[in-house]
Write a structure and sequence with these properties.
The chain has 245 residues and is an alpha/beta fold. It has helices spanning 58-65, 88-97, 116-126, 132-145, 150-153, 163-175, 193-210, 221-227, and strands at residues 9-19, 29-40, 47-51, 73-78, 81-82, 98-101, 181-185, 213-218, 230-235, 238-244. Strands 6-7-8-3-9-10 form a six-stranded mixed beta sheet, sandwiched between helices. A hairpin with a 2-residue loop joins strand 9 and strand 10. Helix 3 crosses helix 4 (132-145), helix 4 (132-145) crosses helix 6 and helix 6 (163-175) runs parallel beside helix 7. The chain starts with 8 loop residues before the first strand and ends with a strand.
Length: 245
């Protein structure tokens, strides 16, 4: 019997098919991800890039890992339990330990709320026992980690900040929940070139200094090389290559 620890997060032969409904119901199915295997170990942090052209299945794979999509076949598991079968307690732990940073740094905000709202709500939910001052300190520490000044960031609306600032707030939001994994889906594709290095540097430091695993979704092999040690290359839903960057 194997003594190897149960993986933190794992896809086992996971596929995801979408149906297309055509004229008179005669459509065809499209398989966005086919029999994918991916393991994030429990006992050590890893940095894995998932690369491929647009439409190759990268974002679908990320959403399977996040539990936003359920595999059509195969399984997606967190600490050995299928995401779709987790208990309430397991799901709460999963939502804290597996965090996402999405591509568009504006769509994730509600324009009617100040950016504080995107930070205070998760801290209040997952750290309800902390005092108001302790929650604020956690938020400010997260902002400073990604190179933002709390006094220049808090109290402002999303449209008052640059795309790079909004994206770094999302990295801070993920970080302040003490995650085990950050899944970053094209996190620098919609920010200025001058800020890409800053955001990538923040992610690399987080991985190195805090022991957080990264799953980095990208079409840019250069940034994959800068940030990660392992790369999976996707093409039309298949993982066609796996290896060292």
């Amino acid at each position: 019997m194997s003594d190897s620890p149960v993986p933190l997060l794992e896809l086992r032969g996971a596929s995801r098919t979408f149906g297309r409904h055509g004229w008179l119901g005669q459509g065809r199915e499209v398989t966005a991800v086919r029999a994918a295997h991916l393991v994030l170990p429990e006992d050590r942090p890893v940095a894995i890039a998932i690369a491929g052209e647009s439409g190759s299945g990268k974002t679908t794979l990320a959403r399977l890992l996040l539990g936003m999509l359920t595999p059509t076949s195969g399984t997606a598991c967190f600490r050995g339990t299928e995401l779709a079968r987790m208990s309430r307690h397991q799901r709460l732990r999963f939502r804290r330990e597996v965090q996402a940073v999405f591509q568009d740094p504006f769509e994730v905000y509600n324009p009617f709320y100040k950016v504080d709202h995107a930070l205070t709500v998760p801290v209040s939910r997952f750290y309800a026992k902390l005092s108001k001052a302790e929650r604020l300190a956690r938020i400010e520490d997260g902002l400073r980690t990604v190179g933002l000044r709390p006094e220049e960031t808090l109290g402002r609306y999303p449209h008052e900040l640059s795309g790079g600032q909004r994206q770094r707030i999302m990295v801070a939001r993920a970080l302040m929940l003490d995650p085990r994994v950050i899944i970053a889906d094209e996190p620098v594709s919609m920010v200025d070139a001058s800020l890409r290095a800053t955001i990538l540097s923040s992610l690399k430091e987080i991985h190195r200094d805090r022991g957080i695993s990264l799953v980095y979704i990208t079409h840019d092999l250069t940034t994959a090389f800068q940030l990660c040690s392992t790369i999976l290359v996707m093409y039309r839903g298949d993982v066609v290559e796996v290896g060292n960057v």
